[in-house]
Amino acid sequence: MPAASHACQAAFLPDLAEVGEMRQTTRAFLRRCRVSEPVAGFVVLAVSELVTNAVVHGEGEVVLRITVAVDVVRVSVTDRSPAPAVLKEAGPDGESGRGIRLVAAISEAWGSSGEETWCEFRDARAAA
Questions:
Q1: Which of 44, 60, 73, 98 holds its CA 20 to 30 A away from the CA of 107?
Q2: What is the pLDDT at residue 21?
Q3: CA 66 to CA 93: how far, in whole Å?
């Protein structure tokens, strides 16, 4: 992976059709940055969950930003909602409430300030 930092950003109106597009864009960007598997797979999954969360629960324009540095991939999704993302307990038959818990489980770190929800992944291949 290159020593320099690389970034990809996309802004779009909230529409569930954008989720698949953002997964494809993320996959192509991570491939170009030579992010290893399975890290790239986890990042794409997190993008899917965070973008879906912003589209369904957020307000206004959604912005996805991915930054690849020496050994860290950071995903940031912003919208205009002041409410932070929170971990929820979903019931066995619940159709929602698992996305942020999934992001927390697969990432090294995550957080939400309200308008921004982010997560980070270590790329062990790059650190070796």
A1: 60
A2: 97
A3: 33
Structure tokens at 117: 């929800």
Structure tokens at 16: 């569930």
Query: If residue 32 lies in a helix (H) or strand (E), which one and from where to where?
Result: helix 17-32
Q: At how many degrees (to 10) do helices 99-106 and 39-57 cross?
A: 150
- How many Å apart are CA 68 and CA 72, to the nearest integer? 6
- The whole-model pTM stands at 0.88
CA 93, 95, 101: angle at the middle one, nearest 5? 100
Q: Is 106 helix (H, G, I), strand (E, B) or coil?
A: helix
- What is the total residue count of the chain? 128
50 CB neighbour count, 10 Å cutoff: 28
